[in-house]
Design goal:
The protein is an all-alpha fold and 464 residues long. It has 2 domains: 385 residues, MFS general substrate transporter like domains (Growth Hormone, Chain: A); 51 residues, no CATH class. The protein has 19 helices and no strands. The N terminus is likely disordered.
Length: 464
């Protein structure tokens, strides 16, 4: 039974207020993801971390985010989207402070893991809340504005992060997120009364959630540790766990994940696959370029941030237009062109070396940013339009799982290549050639994944 709480709230809550809160929230986590990349050399120096250790700073956050997105998305539909969203921001804000105070690598990785828990609550509900208050004919524009906010966070991450690292050390990046979190919480408590739910009189599938989370941990951790002897066992355990999970879900009255969303909804299934391939192909580029510009080109964190800002600036400029375009024509067409441009942007880096002109790097970032802008909001619009209102949070969480899962796999690919070519050593003059080879091989893999994403995007079919 669907609860008509969204209609009641639409009379008392201004959709533009929800858009503003969601936009601020959507800025903060991408800002953290992109700014931390520019701080990696400084963190490595301060905490004496290897190349693989630096990778775990990002990967711990992404793993925690991915594992809990689906259970928390289902919980949001049952117990209230605002409630889960608010709790997530409380956790995210507190752990940002704790990360800034970390004194050892393990402390930082532990607090980044908890920060990922908070971000999963934000990722899994923000789009669902926005979709709850905007009708389908205005949804693409609103989602385009949120995508622009995401990319604004990505834009300011390298630039502002570089300034913060250079002026205040890497800890300044985490301190910066604390007042943003407090602002969001103030607006939530003072401007939004009531809550959104998709269903009532249903129960939470705790057993299915535990099986799902444990299986995903085994699968993704096994993939990220592929050079270790335990990796095959973890991957097999993860696959076996998912077989058990889907069998359990078909036998429970209120499953945490309704398999019909994938089996009987081509738009949802192929849009989700396209998102997974897109983020897997593109996420680690900023991590690699941050290291390349500072270690190979010898730029300061601030200078590297100025170069890297080109990609997300293009994303900010063109995301609203892409969202509006997807309100008029099929999102499948717009998103597929975005995937094609993403593939073209990646190929700019396929021959990168120590002598690569900065103009080539900037051009590649601009094309990549344009492609991501024309993919993201139309793809999100297609996903949210293809499901019923009762499943908005779950659909949003599943889409976020594809995004964060893709980002995790992207970092896992880079860490695998680092472990094979650099090992446990810190990046320095003696192994820059191995680093560049790792970079180029990563690009070949990412370009192939992005090319496959074009066909997944085209396969989804029409939503109108």
């Amino acid at each position: 039974m669907e609860k008509p709480i969204e209609k009641d709230l639409s009379k008392t809550v201004n959709p533009n207020t929800v858009l503003f809160i969601t936009a601020i929230a959507s800025f903060s986590t991408p800002f953290m993801l992109s700014s931390i990349n520019i701080a990696m050399p400084a963190i490595s120096h301060d905490l004496n971390m290897s190349a693989l250790g630096m990778g775990w700073i990002s990967l711990s956050f992404l793993l925690a985010s991915t594992v809990l997105l689906v259970p928390l998305g289902r919980a949001a539909d049952l117990y209230g989207r605002k409630k889960i969203f608010t709790t997530g921001f409380i956790i995210f804000t507190l752990t940002s402070l704790f990360c800034a105070l970390a004194r050892t690598p393990w402390q930082l990785i532990m607090f980044r893991t908890l920060q990922g828990l908070g971000s999963s609550m934000i990722f899994g509900t923000a789009i669902a809340i926005l979709t709850s208050v905007y009708p389908p004919d205005r949804r693409g524009r609103a989602l385009g504005m949120v995508s622009a906010s995401v990319y604004l966070g990505l834009s300011l991450g390298p630039f502002l992060g570089g300034i913060l690292v250079q002026q205040f050390s890497w800890r300044g990046i985490f301190y910066f997120n604390v007042p943003i979190g407090l602002l969001v919480l103030y607006l939530l408590f003072t401007r939004i009364k009531g809550d959104w739910r998709g269903v009532e009189n249903e129960t939470f599938d705790l057993k299915g959630s535990l099986i799902y989370s444990a299986s995903l941990v085994a699968l993704m951790y096994g993939a990220s540790a592929i050079t270790t002897p335990r990796s095959p066992l973890l991957v097999l355990a993860g696959i076996a766990g998912f077989v058990w999970f889907f069998r359990h879900e078909t036998r429970t009255a209120y499953p945490v994940l309704n398999a019909r969303m994938f089996l009987k909804n081509n738009v949802f299934a192929f849009s989700s696959l396209a998102a997974l391939l897109n983020y897997c192909a593109s996420f680690a580029i900023s991590f690699l370029l941050s290291l390349y510009l500072q270690y190979v080109k010898g730029l300061s964190p601030q200078q590297a941030g100025v170069i890297m800002v080109c990609q997300p600036v293009f994303m900010v400029l063109f995301s609203p237009a892409a969202g509006r375009l997807s309100d008029r024509i099929e999102p499948r067409i717009v998103a597929s062109w975005g995937m094609a441009l993403t593939t073209a942007g990646l190929l700019f880096f396929s021959r990168i070396n120590a002598m690569t002109p900065m103009s080539i790097i900037i051009a590649g970032l601009c094309v990549l940013g344009l492609g991501l802008a024309f993919f993201s909001s139309p793809n999100t619009n297609a996903v949210m339009t293809s499901v019923e209102a009762r499943s908005y949070s779950l659909a949003s969480a599943l889409l976020a799982t594809m995004r964060v899962g893709g980002q995790t796999l992207s970092m896992a690919i880079v860490m695998l290549l680092f472990s094979l070519m650099i090992g446990q050593a810190k990046i320095g003059p003696e192994n820059l050639d191995q680093f560049v080879r790792s970079f180029r091989l990563s690009i070949y893999i990412f370009s192939a994944l992005s090319f496959l994403g074009i066909f997944a995007s085209l396969k989804r079919g029409n939503v109108r």
